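sorry to bug you again but im stuck and you know this stuff better than me. below you get a single protein, a line of residues and a line of whole numbers that encode the local backbone shape. mainly i need to know what kind of three dimensional shape the backbone takes. anything you notice is useful, everything is just below:

***
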Amino acid sequence: MDWDDLRIFLAVARAESLSGAGRRLAMDASTVGRRIARLEQAVEAVLFAKTPQGYSLTAEGARLVGPAEAAEQAAAAAAEATRGEAGISGLLRIGAPDGCANYLLPQVARSMCEAHPGLEIQIVALPRVVNLSKREADMAITVSPPDTGRLTVQRLSDYHLHLAAHADYLDRHPPIRAPEDLRQHRMIGYIPDMIFDRELDYLSETGVETATISSNSISVQMQAMRSGAGLGIVHDFAIPFVPGLRIVLPGHIALRRSFWLLRHADDRGSRRLSRLADALIQGLRAEVSRLEAMVLPAATGRT
């Protein structure tokens, strides 16, 4: 059995479509279909059932996933052995929530690529947890540790959030001296039924029940605040990116959250991914510290 056929089989199993697998493999969907047909002929079994939702594994296909993933790990280990330890090359795909992906990972990725010229990094910003079982990414950053799944979990870094608004908004509206004053103001936050992790339910910390402007993207919320549309809970590390943004009620509303790094349990033996994970952890911690230090301690209530 050809390993390359198994590689294509895994891509279809994870993407649940020929076109999705083709995009991941940089291959035409019709070619993917022909290769799957060739593999099915070789194993004398139908591996996928075509449904309105896409391609789903048959019982025979599900039995092939384990051996195919074992072959994938063996191929990766062989590639690592030939590359040696001098530098890290190849593709790394990182899944992350919106705030981390927009305000932290670009700088961290730059440093990692400068240290390893042969490295290519893809940042996947999704309003949900990246599915590592389907290999949507090599590793994922989340705002809470998972309860289930064959994953290795490492604490990445703590970070802080505060209520903030643009100076233009604050100049045009009544002063805010206590949390009760917020009832006179417009709030910006997440769409309630699109909050994919309980740690993102920031609005409840303000005592205000509903947001006037809401989005499932923290970047959209930040742009709304930049325009002077209202107040919202923001990451301290994102504040330096929005000149004019001011922290409000630091002594009353101050949140701390954590980022977690997730990897598929089968990747524990990969020296390459372990080295990349270490570089990512060090880089992200340093970037959170650098950006948060730019926010005046007097304004945040921290020392």
